[in-house]
Amino acid sequence: MEKKPLYRKVNTRTWGVWRNDYTGHYRHQRNTKNEVNNDASRGSMHGTRRHGFDYTPLFRFLLSRVGRQWDEVFSEAVARLDRPEPVFWMVALHENERKEQVCLGESSYFSGLYVDDQGFLRIVNPELTAERMTPNCYCCTHTFNGVPFGLRKD
Q1: Least confident of 27-31, 38-42, 77-81
Q2: Is 151 inside a domain boundary?
Q3: Whole domain around residue 68: which residue ranges?
């Protein structure tokens, strides 16, 4: 039985989907005399960014595996991903990279994780909870490990 991937494909063609694009750079330089005369300067109109992937299932997977052997967790995660980089958005391998919380999205926060000296996955600050957090603004719904926080009581 094949396990589900740890990411979701999001429809980025839908009206109103924010993709943090910096488009338009290529269109201002194409068909210029310099561009026409020099084929070496021609580049792809398609950037290197990867749009349309939501890695929330990965982040929940990693949180559910706290206390387990890192090598096993990492190998299972990579087998279910399209690329390994998103794992390290949340997991620090070196002490100087550790963060109590990581912002992975516009207003989605998750506990920072690290690998201890014995090779186990651990939470940087286990006492940090959604009740102790305050949002930057009150116009958005902020979450910490999937739990909303900072909701106005109107």
Answers
A1: 38-42
A2: no
A3: 54-126
Q: What is the pLDDT of residue 38?
A: 55
Which pLDDT score is estimated for 91? Answer: 97
Do residues 101 and 131 lie in contact, with contact meaning Cβ atoms separated by under 8 Å? no
123, 127, 124, 115: which is closest to 73 by C-alpha? 115
| 27 occurs within a structural domain | no
Average pLDDT, the chain: 81
Residues 90, 64 contacting (CB under 8 angstroms): no
| Distance (Å, whole) CA 25 – CA 86 | 27
The side-by-side arrangement of strands in the sheet containing 142-144 is: 101-103, 108-111, 142-144, 147-149
Residue 4 domain flag: no
Question: Is 3 within a domain?
Answer: no
Phi, psi torsion values for 95, nearest 5 degrees:
-60, -35
Residues 80, 129 contacting (CB under 8 angstroms): no
Name the domain count of the chain: 1
Q: For residue 146, what are its two tokens?
A: 């999937």
* pLDDT tens string 81-126: 999 999 999 999 999 999 999 998 888 999 999 999 999 999 999 9
